[in-house]
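Board notes (copied after class):
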Amino acid sequence: MSTLQQPAATGPATVTEATTTQRDPREKASRASRSTRTRRLRNAEGGRKQKRSGLLTAVMVVFVVYSFAPLFYLLVNSTKTQTSLLSTFGLWFGGKFNLWQNIVDTLTYNDGIFVQWLGNTLLYVVVGAGGATLLATVAGYGMAKFQFVGRRAVFAVVLGAIAVPGTALAVPTFLLFSQFGLTNTPWAIILPSLISPFGMYLIWTYAVDAIPAELLEAARMDGAGEFRIFFTIALRLLAPGVVTVLLFAVVATWNNYFLPLIMLSDPKWYPLTVGLNQWNAQATGSGAQPIYNLVVTGSLLTIIPIVVAFLFLQRFWQSGLAAGSVKA
């Protein structure tokens, strides 16, 4: 009885084992094929990424070289004398190393007029750019957090002011200031620098989301006045935007050339941009006295404060952008 039942008991298992034995090679082949395709796809994707990465790297190298080439030119040629500056290759050192002497000559030439130009530029930047940042911050905050009649009209005026280039307003500004006797004075540079429509618009758009309305309402319920709310709460939340506007205003005022050129006639009020151009103009005309080495060295000294300002304000950018990212 058991002998007759044994094949019936073992038959299905034998068939299953045979079927499994037949399927294993096909499944292995299928898995191998899938893994091969996966590896090929990964290799192809990796190759495309490497190509894109290589292209982006090449583009970035071109931009870096293009950006740093003028700085490298200034650094190299500031080490040369007037003679070697005109007789050697411009993008490499040559002749006597004369950097320190060039710096001394730049600071002492014509009774130290370069130092006076530097002081004038600092005055225009501190008062003009600082005032423009403060006014843009106050106005942008008010436009973002207060409702009043004519708000849309102000918005249209601000956008229109951004679209008008500053050079188009230089001549009308000169005619207006000449009627008030403000030309050839520091006010001719400071007053136009106080107006920054782009800075106001930037603070406006930033303050909409950076300052919660609930926070302002809570401060008002606690009895805080509007000025206290602005200086103790809003200004801290607006720090990244304020730093951005400040940097734009500082760079614009520091590099301002056309407005001082038409507003000022007395060299004692020149900023660095107009003063260095005057030095450069000494190489032409009758009785020319070229001082290209001092012009190049002065240009190198001129960019140092801007670099320092960027490095100093960068930490406020980083800390401000991270503020508020962690909810208590």
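Comment from the instructor: The longest helix spans residues 2-77. The chain has two domains: 1-65, 99-322.
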